[in-house]
Amino acid sequence: MPGEGGTPHAGYRRDNFLYDAEEDVYICPRGSKLRYRGEAVRNGKKMRRYRSEDSRLCDVREKCTKDKWGRAIYRWEHEDILEAMRQRVKAEKEKVKTRQYLCEHPFGTIKRSFNQGYMLLRGIDKVRAEISLSVLAYNIKRALNILGTLTLIQGIRLASSAHQGEGASSQRNRPRANHQPLTMDTKTPFLHAYPIRLQ
């Protein structure tokens, strides 16, 4: 019999069935075709149902399904979008690795260390303000860890004086002071926040 709860054995799970877009059929590991047999709604999603005509006579049926009507595969109506994404992940593994160390650290820190696993507010503007504050806190914490407190303060002062110098020079038509900008590794994960719109 299949595994606990009717779960198919290894080698006969859904991922082992190949979809042929031209014929609109699924092909099982033993070569049988599961053809379109109508539509159904599962978990609120519109699905296409595929079923094999000869699965009841298959000699490995016990490893595949315990459904008396044979093995069925359900395909979401937008499954092609997910399949294209899976192909990109397989083809561009280096980009996946880059995403892991650029994105997982910020969101993991915000979710776990900052206890921001969910939003406290409701409404798009309030949520944007809330996440912007979380992102700001993360960026400050990250800058402190990378640059150190003194270097960060120096950078803030340089940026502030440069901004003030720009405003004064525009009024007096004077060239802007040339400050040496702080350099930072471009791979350092920093996040961009939404602008906060105050009422």
Question: Nutshell version of this structure?
Answer:
By secondary structure, this protein is an alpha+beta fold.
Description of the molecule:
This protein is α+β, with helices and mostly antiparallel strands and 199 residues long. It has two domains: 4-85, no CATH class; 96-172, no CATH class. The chain contains five helices and five strands; from the N terminus they run E-E-E-E-H-E-H-H-H-H. The chain has helices spanning 61-64, 79-91, 93-113, 124-147, 149-172, and strands spanning 18-20, 25-27, 33-42, 45-52, 72-76. It has a five-stranded antiparallel beta sheet, with no helix packed on it. Strand 2 (25-27) and strand 3 (33-42) form a beta hairpin. Helix 4 packs across helix 5 (149-172). The radius of gyration is 28 Å and the shape is elongated. The relative contact order is 0.08. The model is unreliable at 1-5, 179-184 and 193-199 (pLDDT under 50).
List low-confidence stretches. 1-5, 179-184, 193-199
Class from helix and strand fractions: alpha+beta
Mean pLDDT: 79
Beta content: 5-15%
Q: Could you tell me the radius of gyration in angstroms?
A: 28 Å
Q: Could you outline the blueprint of secondary structure elements for this entry?
A:
Layout: E1 18-20, E2 25-27, E3 33-42, E4 45-52, H1 61-64, E5 72-76, H2 79-91, H3 93-113, H4 124-147, H5 149-172
Antiparallel strand pairs: 1-2, 2-3, 3-4, 4-5
Helix pairs in contact: 4-5
Descriptive labels:
199 residues, alpha+beta, 2 domains, five-stranded antiparallel β-sheet, elongated, disordered N terminus
